[in-house]
Amino acid sequence: LLFASTSMAARAAPRIAVVVDGPSELYDETIRELGSELSSLFAARYPTLKFASQPVLTGDYTQASVEAKLTAALSDPNVDMVVGIGIQTGSAVAKIENLPKPVFLPFATPQLQALPAKGGTSGRKNLAYLTGLIDLERELRRFREVIRRDQVLFLLDQKILDASPMIPTMLPKF
Q1: How far apart are CA 146 and CA 131, in angstroms?
Q2: CA quadruple 154, 34, 68, 118: dihedral positive or negative?
């Protein structure tokens, strides 16, 4: 992933910007942990690699703010790669057909974020993501067995629904 761009290979260490949906201690912790893992993984090749070496670009949990932060990171000549964290950030990435630099989404839900998928990859140049979407229907069946309830109420922030309007269609009917 870090070798995906020719311009990055010529540099001592890639300059990585991080875009997140909004302020969150969970995002801060994720950035620290992911940075530690990447630094360890690429220590031999890039001993000076600093994850989030560029400022973390933090939206305000609106789709417009996240899209603006992503656009800023992708157009910044001092950024070689972008890591996006959050459902809104993934949805914003999905809307961009031609990514000008590598983008990595470590926690993606392709169906919810409308991310492209082709043959086990994104199928889109400069886009890589990891998936781990739970099988919601299976989990709800198990919940029903344990709790013995016929109905479950989902509370979602309107901003999340705006970012991923397909969520209601993906919720199982019981």
Answers
A1: 27
A2: negative
Fill in the amino acid letter for 114: A
Q: How far apart are CA 96 and CA 144, in angstroms?
A: 39
State the Cα–Cα distance between residues 153 and 39, nearest whole angstrom: 41
Distance CA 68, CA 89 (A): 10
Mean pLDDT score, 84-97 = 94
Torsion, CA 34, CA 64, CA 123, CA 137, rounded to 10: 80
Tokens encoding 82: 């972008």
CA dihedral 103, 59, 131, 93 (to 10 degrees): -40
- Look up the pTM and report it: 0.75
**Cβ contacts of residue 57 below 8 Å, gap of 6+?**
17, 18, 19, 20, 69, 70, 72, 73
What pLDDT digit, counting tens, does each position of 37-89 carry? 888 888 888 887 777 666 799 999 999 999 999 999 999 998 999 999 998 99
Q: Please give the pLDDT value at position 4.
A: 47
The percent of the chain in helix, strand and coil, each rounded to the nearest 5, is 40, 15, 45
Q: What does the block give as tokens for 51?
A: 């994850």
